Amino acid sequence: MQIALTGRPGIGKTTACLKIFEKLKDEMKISGFVTKEVREKGRRIGFKLVNLESGEESWLAKVGEGKVKVGKYAVFVENLEKFLDEISLDSDLIIIDEVGPMELKSEKFVKFVENLLRKDNVIFTIHYKACHRILDEIRRRFKVITLTEENRNKAVEEVVEIVRGRKSQDSN
């Protein structure tokens, strides 16, 4: 089961990952992370990584100046790379939200994702339009579900059923 969720910014990819996590966390060991928007006075000021197992958070990017930039955001590559060391790879399900321009600034992240391509228990969210060899590989090899306002709740249920079906096959 290799699934990639995609869709325009703000469509609910992270929310979908959190819903999948909530529905399955009592049935299996889930690791990985989601990337949450951080808002101040209604304006997005950055993104934080949130470890699904521990709840630990770390800044991925914040509006401002920095060595590595994506648009108006300074990307904290060292935070991401340190964060990856805490992700358990021996889980029943691994959720990685997101494989996108900010994360792809890290060669360690690219290698991390390349290793996950060999596993069959992974859900990625992928940037809708970004171009990168690793995104091309995911789009080619994974079941890609494009979230829309009309299908996003149904898509969560579909993914949960796929994961449950795979887990029941593994236990037989």
Automatic annotation (TrEMBL):
Name the UniProt key words of this record, in alphabetical order.
Answer: ATP-binding, Hydrolase, Nucleotide-binding
- The UniProt record lists the EC number as 3.6.1.15
* CDD domains, sorted: RecA-like_Thep1
Q: Is Membrane set as a keyword in this record?
A: no
Q: Which Pfam families match?
A: NTPase_1 (PF03266)
| Catalytic function, reaction form | a ribonucleoside 5'-triphosphate + H2O = a ribonucleoside 5'-diphosphate + phosphate + H(+)
GO MF terms listed in the record are: ATP binding; ribonucleoside triphosphate phosphatase activity
Q: Which SUPFAM superfamilies match?
A: P-loop containing nucleoside triphosphate hydrolases
Q: Does the keyword Iron apply?
A: no
**Binding site residues for ATP:** 7-14, 93-100
Q: Which InterPro entries match?
A: Nuc-triphosphatase_THEP1, P-loop_NTPase
What function does this protein fulfil?
Has nucleotide phosphatase activity towards ATP, GTP, CTP, TTP and UTP. May hydrolyze nucleoside diphosphates with lower efficiency.
Entry's NCBIfam families? PRK13695.1
Q: Which PANTHER family match?
A: CANCER-RELATED NUCLEOSIDE-TRIPHOSPHATASE (PTHR43146:SF1)
Q: Return the similarity comment.
A: Belongs to the THEP1 NTPase family.
What is the protein's name according to its record? Nucleoside-triphosphatase Ferp_1308
Q: What is the lineage of its organism?
A: Archaea, Methanobacteriati, Methanobacteriota, Archaeoglobi, Archaeoglobales
